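> example.struct
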């Protein structure tokens, strides 16, 4: 009958054991990094906080004012929640919304805004889809250049773009000067302060 002899294990020095224990134990920096946000969290969190402060909070304040009565003071509206005799009362006013539905000027303005938004969306799709299709089918080097050409205008301020369009579309602007110089038109086109100018700008 054969018996297998066990191979004696090599002795482990105390220095190696202490080194292994030190590696297994996380340091202060690694423990602190667990509680700090990662790069991805910061990249997502900073725009989220920015929108929450400068978009969501003002929107909530305006929504609160819309359900309150106007008063002279700070804040310029009544409180929506009142506590009387230990009972919570909600004082929501719908008079502002009723006024919007009864005034023809507000209704016409709202419908005009919806029409402009719909027409602008259709025009953007008609112009943007062929451009996107061409960029997607282009070579990689040319694709990057075309993408930069599309994105660069959006890096400028919206106010600067509006003033640039005013300089182009007004009666004595660049577009009318060019068309008159080429003999295409003899009187300036009324593009500024018109629906066509709004569609072009949007």
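> example.seq
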């Amino acid at each position: 009958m054969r018996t297998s002899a066990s191979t004696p294990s090599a002795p482990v020095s105390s220095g190696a054991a202490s080194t292994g224990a030190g590696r297994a134990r996380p340091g202060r920096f690694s423990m602190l990094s667990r509680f700090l946000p990662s790069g991805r969290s910061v990249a997502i969190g900073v725009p989220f906080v920015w929108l929450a402060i400068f978009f969501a909070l003002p929107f909530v304040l305006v929504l609160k004012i819309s359900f309150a009565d106007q008063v002279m003071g700070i804040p310029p509206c009544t409180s929506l929640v009142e506590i009387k005799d230990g009972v919570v009362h909600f004082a929501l006013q719908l008079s502002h919304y009723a006024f919007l539905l009864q005034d023809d000027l507000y209704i016409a303005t709202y419908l005009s805004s919806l029409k402009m938004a719909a027409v602008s969306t259709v025009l953007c799709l008609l112009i943007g889809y062929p451009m996107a299709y061409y960029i997607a089918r282009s070579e990689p080097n040319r694709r990057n250049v075309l993408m930069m050409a599309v994105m660069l205008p959006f890096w400028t301020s919206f106010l600067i773009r509006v003033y640039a369009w005013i300089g182009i579309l007004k009666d004595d602007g660049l577009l009318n000067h060019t068309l008159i110089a080429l003999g295409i038109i003899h009187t300036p086109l009324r593009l500024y302060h018109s629906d066509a100018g709004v569609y072009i700008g949007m």
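> remarks
Strands lie at 81-84, 87-90.
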